[in-house]
Amino acid sequence: MTQQFDRRFGRRDFIKASAAAALAGSGPFLGLRHAHAADPIQFFCWSAGVDQVKSHVSAFEAKTGLKVAYNNAPWAQYRDTLVTKFVGKAPLDVLWVSDSWLPEWAEAGWLAPIDGYKELTQYNADVDDFSTKSMLWKGKQYGLTYYTDYMAFFYDAEKLQKAGIKTPPKTWDEVTQQSLQIKKAGLAEYPMMLSMARESWLIEFLSAMVFSHGGRFVEDSGAAVMQDRSKGAHAALNWIVDAVNKHKIVSPACVEIGELNGLKAFSSGNHAFALLGRYRVRTLNDPKQSQIAGRVKQGLMPAGPKGSNATVGWNRFYGLTTQAAANKEKAVNAVKLIEWFGGKAEGKYAFQKLMFMDVGSGFAVKPLFKDQEIIKAYQSYSDMAMYEKQQALAKKKDVVSPWFGEWDEANGTAWQAAIVGKSSVDDALKRSADTWNKLRKQA
Amino acid sequence: MTALERAGHRVFLAAASVVFLAYVLAPVAWLASSSVQQEAEITSRPPHWIPQRPTPENFAAIFEAKEKQVTYENRRQGDPATGGYIPSTARNLMPAMWNSLIVAVAVVVLNLLVSVPAAYAMAKIRFIGRSASIYFMLITRVIPDIALVVPFFLFIRKLGLLDHLGSLVITYLAITVPFSVFILVSYFESLPDELDKAARIDGCSRLQTLLLVYVPLAVPSLVAVILFTFLTSWNEFLLALMFTQTPASQTMPIVVASFASDFTISFSFINAAGVLAVVPPVVLAIAFERYIVSGLTAGAVKG
User: Fold this and answer.
1) What is the distance between the alpha carbons of residues B225 and A340, in angstroms, rounded to a whole number?
2) What global pTM score does this model have?
């Protein structure tokens, strides 16, 4: 038998067969096209509003005759993906950028300023101030806004009515009192929904709490003030700690609840109040997606004892890469694409409007607040006047820096430790401030 | 033990089994149930284990027509009236599943071709540097994947394989071959050397000894390797995220992850994608069920 085998299948046959199998195994994908065959504008985004982006890209291609290679990656892994691509010198021309990453990317030389392109900066006059400021680093502007929104305070009007509450809370103290009333009425075990899980959203939640308590994490000079008892961060964290441990109006599981799970928990009718991104109101009032559809109203952000109705706003924008800026022809085409999306297309803020009408995402271009189609659409599920009023009180995050990522980890851990009772409020904020100062000194 | 005690013992075992099964199967049952629920129903309290208004819309969106040029006119809108909360990238799921299958099968085949002869040589042939080569292979797996991403990326870019399934096959082989060799070396070492000697005396070449004597005896261990390799390739996320960027090469985990980052997020839709994602591994596990346990423990205990 062995001889027979020898004749039929020797060592060389084995090697040949292995090579054939390798070719056969890899055959199905040898025919697939490479991504960089042509030389289109390389446009990279996270996977949001995909059809809206694609349709606007199609219109751009039809209008200009230019080709666009649109690709995307999930939001949660977007930063890591882009950093790898930058380091690996992958072709990238235009991309979506979060305000949180701007200092890191600008300092690394991956993003190019757009100040020299008047066709882009002309739109600043129409944009909310905090939004434009979010795109500045060391006095230079690095993009044009694509989407802007802020942390909003929502309440379930029906629950408040059932508890005999006539007006929504104006202060955080009233939130506590009304929550206790709702809890007593048996309408919700934990009336207030806060998402305090360690994820990219956490800094937005914390900033909203701190700003509405009249505080800041750091001063304009860059020095940490979060540890100062007379400043708002202390009062904000104290409110959360009391809400969880003393009043039991916020679930202790809040440290495990991310923004998305918070949205689903609120939409299932578990809570009376919630902090969520403003654009979530569309989902919350959609009967196909929410158990409390039609009952969700937006109120102004409650104010702390020494605070105001301020909230945190965020900005995502179109950035131009340095590799595109370095090539004159590429830069011209990339700037055209940025203007088409972040500025006006055919004389209108078409993409911002498209995104708002289709998915409810926010915008920073003020003229759209007067657009009758937008007003009509928004009024069907929320209150346009409240949207605009709160946006005017939005502030940009004060902790955006090249060391933001590292500090954000330490800060989130410190706040969580205080919330679950493993640390005092003073210790948590001191630890966070020390980390900030150390990283700032190292930078 | 009395008859009563024996009966009590059996009842206890049965009850414990039911509790254990419920614990293990409940998440899977919820995955399947919620995949045919409306998004509003999925958040009902108490949860509806049996859907009250079952809908096939999630699966319909997945199996709908292939990608076409998207224009203002044919774009999917986020309007609930059009079912727009289902992500527009739903149509990418089936191509991604196919990509995952191609990559996983290619990696399994190539992995076996490399690791079986390598493991046999390391287990049965005494050569200088034998032990060192085994440890060297294992050491390569001590390095976390995240540390390899940038070097791999540069390597793949140099090869011109970015956004190409070949990039995944190459890098997954680098990840899986060391473990496969390690598993197989342990198993081959547990088989008596006398078999090797007897085959050689009977005139078998090394290759024949491997293919005619050892491979048939190592089936449970090979099944473990196949399962490990297939599942690793099927589930891998980080490298696929870095090396692919269009639906032409994106695999299942990347497309599923993208569903959670849109402005409108449907848990029921993500669960429908999850149902499809578990089908191939489950089919594989059922097909090889009788070999799995013996394969995983193969070589763990030497007599």
Assistant:
1) 52
2) 0.81
